[in-house]
Specification:
This protein has 3 helices and 8 strands. The protein has 145 residues and is α/β, with parallel strands linked by helices. The chain is globular and about 45 Å long.
Length: 145
């Protein structure tokens, strides 16, 4: 799996002019399933992200995780994280998992975060979404499982 993670003070996702997911302090996680990913990959990736020390402690150092801060997660599927830009000017996305497989893994990833007692909101898989956020820091992390 691939993820682009942003520490936020607030974030929301809108579909057809309706907010379908919204959080305050926490992580906005754009996630992309790759062909080799499994349900176990999604669970392990969620656990890893939940423990990343991206939030400030009392001294202003990034020493606290999402779990420690009682933050929330907004999980948004984004197959474009699989973009291949090595040839030409049009990115290719054949490196992403199939839509059916990606949907299953996306749901498993969000479920795994919920199972860690993290409040989770989601986007709508496959929909044309608008995402709004206030990046805190800014802190933005690129990850691969």
């Amino acid at each position: 799996m691939r993820a682009l993670i942003q520490r936020v003070t607030q974030a929301s996702v809108t579909v057809d002019d309706e907010i379908i997911g919204e959080i305050g302090q926490g992580l906005l996680i754009f996630v992309c399933a790759m062909p080799e990913d499994t349900l176990d990959t999604a669970i392990a990736f969620a656990a890893k992200i939940s423990k990343l020390r991206l939030f400030k402690d009392d001294l202003g150092k990034m020493n606290h995780s999402l779990i420690q801060t009682d933050g929330s997660a907004l999980v948004v599927s984004q197959f474009t994280l699989a973009a291949d830009t090595s040839r030409g000017n049009r990115p290719g996305f054949s490196g992403a998992a199939s839509a059916e497989e990606a949907h299953t893994l996306y749901l498993q990833f969000a479920r795994a975060l919920r199972n860690l007692n993290i409040p989770v909101q989601t986007g709508l898989f496959g929909a044309d979404m608008s995402v709004s956020l206030v990046n805190d820091g800014p802190v933005t992390i690129w990850m691969e499982s």
